[in-house]
User: Which sequence fits this backbone?
């Protein structure tokens, strides 16, 4: 029998940490491998979180490094290879070299189910490997399956096939309704997303068992498993659940999420960092750069040292320009205004809900 590996990546962010706790606690029978891809440029809080998780869960987290034989940090090694060209949202060589390639090397040719911590309140897809031996599962979402699996299972060509599986699947009182929905063709008036949501609204467990049956007709890693405990999972976890899991377990929320007061012309604002990843990550908002400058000046200085030969982390502004006193004041004032606008709409007690408005942007491998 082919062995399937179940792997869970820890990015250093809150969601993947909570996922590790959730899956390990709820599904102790799953034989999980944990890994984290280290760029060499993470915040200390990230390394602390990894340690806390290892202690709390009694696990070993495998640390993956791009350029493992290099004497330099992985990031610096590849920066040299790229001629000092700093990565940016349009040229994310860092994610490829420091996250994806080490992960694919770690997996090799094994059949792998990879658990990804995208939450039930997020509207984004995670890393979908182009490698056929890697299948992603999203336990926090109502729809635990990846987009490619859903597209195949619900495609018009597969309607008859999938309906034939429903005979052995229990949709409870929605048995006929599920068949009706499955028999409807996808077109501009009834999209794949609508079909998916209509099916999930009938019976989540029934839907999951249906997809599992479908997978048996494919080469996906889960087609080789005789059972999969997450088929019966109906939990949907959102941001508050993530904080609760981290706090209740004692692992704790990574310290960089803690809000810190700042005073600007007599007005009090609060800032923190909204995500994990390299301390100089170009996805940071201006206020997060200021947070780095004021809370970790030594790291800000190091980030500045990377800006040379005309390359800067942010477009249109160097880190040197950003910390001119009048510019810091301007960024903080604008940020306070934005917080006031957003907090009127948003009653969450967590600052991160406001800071995180762009959380969906960026790199799933680095920030989940
Ligand atoms: S955290 Fe940012 S800079 Fe670091 S690897 Fe990820 S995308 Fe690149």
Assistant:
């Amino acid at each position: 029998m082919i062995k399937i590996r179940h792997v869970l990546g820890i990015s250093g962010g809150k969601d993947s940490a909570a996922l590790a706790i959730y899956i390990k606690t709820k599904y102790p029978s799953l034989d999980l491998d944990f890994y984290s891809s280290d760029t060499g440029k993470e915040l200390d809080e990230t390394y602390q979180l990894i340690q806390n998780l290892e202690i709390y869960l009694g696990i070993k987290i495998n640390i993956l490094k791009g350029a493992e034989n290099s004497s330099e940090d992985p990031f610096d090694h590849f920066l040299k290879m790229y001629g000092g060209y700093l990565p940016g949202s349009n040229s994310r060589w860092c994610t490829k070299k420091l996250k994806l390639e080490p992960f694919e090397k770690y997996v090799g040719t094994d059949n792998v189910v990879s658990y990804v911590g995208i939450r039930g309140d997020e509207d984004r897809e995670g890393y979908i490997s182009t490698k056929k031996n890697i299948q992603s599962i999203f336990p926090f979402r109502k729809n635990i399956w990846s987009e490619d699996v859903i597209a195949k299972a619900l495609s018009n060509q597969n309607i008859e096939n999938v309906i034939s599986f429903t005979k052995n699947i229990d949709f409870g009182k929605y048995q006929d309704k599920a068949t009706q929905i499955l028999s409807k063709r996808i077109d501009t008036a009834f999209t794949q997303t609508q079909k998916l949501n209509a099916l999930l609204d009938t019976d989540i467990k029934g839907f999951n068992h249906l997809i599992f049956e479908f997978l048996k007709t494919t080469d996906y890693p889960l087609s080789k498993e005789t059972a999969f405990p997450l088929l019966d999972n109906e939990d949907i976890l959102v941001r508050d659940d993530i904080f609760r899991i981290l706090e209740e377990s004692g692992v704790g929320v990574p310290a960089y999420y803690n809000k810190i007061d700042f005073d600007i012309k007599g007005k009090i604002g609060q800032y923190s960092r909204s995500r994990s990843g390299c301390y100089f990550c170009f996805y940071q908002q201006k206020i997060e750069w200021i947070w780095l400058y004021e809370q970790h000046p030594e790291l800000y200085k190091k980030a500045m040292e990377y800006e040379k030969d005309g390359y800067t982390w942010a477009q249109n502004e160097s880190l040197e320009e950003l910390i001119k006193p009048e510019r810091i004041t301007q960024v903080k004032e604008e940020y306070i205004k934005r917080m006031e606008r957003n907090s009127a709409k948003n009653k969450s007690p967590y600052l991160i809900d406001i800071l995180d408005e762009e959380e969906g942007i960026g790199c799933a491998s680095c920030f989940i």
